[in-house]
Each structure stands twice: as C-alpha cells, then as structure tokens.
Amino acid sequence: MFEQMSQSEAKEAVLQLVEEYWSQFHQAKDTEEPERIPYSGRVYDSAEMKNLVDSALDFWLTAGEYTEQFESGLAEYIGVSFCSVVNSGSSANLLAFMALTSPLLKARRVLPGDEIITVAACFPTTLAPVIQYGAIPVFIDITIPEYNINISQLEQALTNKTKAVMIAHTLGNPFDLGAVKDFCDKNNLWLIEDNCDALGSEYYLDKIWRKTGSVGDIGTSSFYPPHHITMGEGGAVYTKNPLLHKIIRSLRDWGRDCICNSGQDNRCGHRFSKQYGKLPMGYDHKYVYSHFGYNLKATDMQAAIGVAQLEKLPKFVLRRRDNFDYLKERLQAYEDFLMLPEPCPNSLPSWFGFLVTCKNGVSRNTLIAHLEDRGIQTRMLFAGNILRHPCFEGLEDGVDYRVATPLVNTDRTLYDTFWVGVYPGMTNKQLDKMADEIILAIKKQGMAI
Ligand SMILES: Cc1ncc(COP(=O)(O)O)c(C=O)c1O
Predict the structure, then answer these.
(1) pLDDT in tens, 188-231
(2) Which of 45, 80, 258, 349 sits between 20 and 30 A of 369, alpha carbons compared?
(3) Does 389 participate in catalysis according to the annotation?
(4) Which of 227, 228, 245, 285 is an active site residue?
C-alpha cells in the first residue's frame, strides 16, 4: 500500500485508517449507554488515538517532542513557568517531596526527622514519600463536608521542626489556599499542592483567580485514566521556582546535573569544560550527578495522548461542574439524611467526584450495597484514615508520626462517607439514575422523607 508514497503520505494514510477505526469501533461503543455507571473513565476521540499512533510511528519512544509540547501546554494552563512530565501522580508526589530534601536548598532543606503537616484522610502516595524518607508526618483533622484540612488546627501542629505542608485538594475541592499559604509564608514552610484530583480547579487569591497547583511551591498531577485528563499512566510536577525545577529535573532524570533532554547533547554549552565535585576538569557533564535520583520519565506516546486531552480539558472541567451541580440539586431535598459536598469559600472546584456523608441513621454500607447492586460504581474517600491501615502497623505515634489533634471527622469518613462520579462521559440519564437510586436507597432504610 505504501510503495508509491512518501513517508509523510504513508503516515497520513495510516492516521486516516486510525480515524476510521476509532469511528467504527470506539465511537459507537461510547454512545451506547453502559449498564454500569462508572465513577469515572476515559473520554477521548480519534485525536488521542491518532496522536498515539503518530508517536508510535516516529518510534522515538522516550520523552520527546510531544512531551515538550505537553509540558509547555500544561504549564501555561496552570499558570506556572516549569512543568515536568513523569510516569504517574505517585511519582510526581515522590519527586515533589524529594525535591525539598535537596542539599541545594541549604537551610530550608527537609531532613529526616523534620515534620510535615498533612491529613490522614488521604491518598496513600501523598504521604508515602514523607515516611519513606524518614520525615515525620503530623496529622490534623479535616472538615466535613469539604473533606479538606481543618485550617483552625494548623497552629497546633506547628513546632520548630515543621518544614512543609503537603496535602491534596480533595476530590477537586480546593483546600483553603489563602489560609494555608499565609500560614506557610508566616512560618517559612514549603507548600506542596497534590493537585492530582483537582486539575482545573480555581481559587481566588489576591484578587486573581488562580489554578490550584500554582499557589504552593510545587504542584502535582496524575493522568491515570479516571483523572481529569489521561495518558494511561502519567503525571506531572510543576513550579514557578527555577531552583526547584532544576532539582525536580535532576531527580527525575537519574540525579544528573545536566539539563539536556533525552537524546540531546551539550545543551548547556559546557559539556566538557567545567569541573564538578571532586571530578577531574572537563568530565562529561552528561554523567555528573548532583542528586541520588530516579528515572521517572514517561514515554512520548503517553505525552502524545496528553496533548490531545489537554485541548479538551476546559470542556471537561465545565461538564464536571455541571454534573456535580445537577446531582446536588437532585439530592438537596434529602439533606436530613445526606451531608452534601460544599466547595471551599473563594473557590471554583473542578470536581473529581460527588462526596456524600450519611447522617441521621442512614447506613452508608447499606446505601452503597444498593447502588453497587444496580451497577452504580461507588468509591471510598481513598484511605479514609490512613493511620488505621495495615501499612501503619509497627509505626509508633510520637516517633514515626504524630497526631496533633483528634481525627474525629477523618474517622467519620471510614463509616459514613462515599462518592459517586461526575466525569464528563456521564449522560443525563445516568445522573438521573444515580440520584433516583440514592433516594430509593434512603427510603428503603425506612427513613421518613
Ligand atoms: C490525591 C491523589 N494523589 C496521588 C494519586 C496518585 O496518582 P497515580 O495513580 O497516577 O499514581 C492519586 C490517584 O488517584 C490521588 O487521588
């Protein structure tokens, strides 16, 4: 088929076939109403598939042009100067935290034994790097129905060992960025925003609407399929701070000092003309290591999907908001039995899900069993209280971690809280079915409505 074609014509022909393949086998599938209502899922069209195949045909494989395009596009969207694509949101959190341990940060460097304020109602990999490094997480409670850090308890967690606050914007609902940033600035603390579930959320600070992830020192994203945009597996770390960016890149790329991209040589112009550490003069800069690093890069094929997804992001965010508002309106009359989610003041969330806490005798477990039986996927608030998980066995309060305030609301989420989806692929019929079944499940529990 390709004999008479140039390479670019042949590629075009392949991409045309991909378009047809998508339309024949994927588009049709997407328009069918699935029996099951998932809490989230991929929303894509031929653009993602064509980018993926385009990248595969280039066969560059490692980080390349699509990666650079995605990094600059996401940085612009978030409103930061620097962005680094990585292979997952968990890797992004690992890099963000480990960046704070770099010797290049001198006195502000986080050392083992230093304290990091956080919450126990978390996704585990927001916390894992802190523990893995030997820093001490200090837990305070959350508020319900925002499910974010209780800012009135921040001072109680503070000691002369506190070096940072590292928390997520829970299910897209921004935490009180104004108050947390103020607290961090006043006490010379780093702020890491785990933005993995909140891409597109906004917060009004100093008379400007800012994207979450751009206010703290470092922000992180996940592009695992249920997230706001996907690459299959993938993540990103972003910052406005050039020194942090340099450290993040070094740690991401084996710990090296050099800033060349994969396959590039001598970008800095002094590959063989400088002296580093105790190395001989002129030792190849490509093989000079300023950190004990990792390799957390993603492939260009992942970034290629991300480039197409990023274009759809503004529409996805609006659809998530609309779906959230619709569910909330449908359930408003049942507030005696369900605590409905509330956005943080001064914020415009890009919701990841619709969080509900049962009250006045409604059983969460009975309610979610009813929904799951009818094909409606439900989810817990991740760990609920991470301290109650097997991974904490063997760790000692006051030694390996510290609980600064009673975790009353955190514990409540273990028993009463769950969430359902609001992702952009959800149809109005599905939203109605979810609301109808939630209401029916309350009625079935004998609640007088
Ligand atoms: C708040 C939060 N942080 C981090 C992650 C980890 O992202 P990934 O699954 O890409 O490693 C998740 C995953 O869903 C998350 O919800």
Answers:
(1) 999 999 999 999 999 999 999 999 999 999 999 999 999 999 99
(2) 349
(3) no
(4) 227
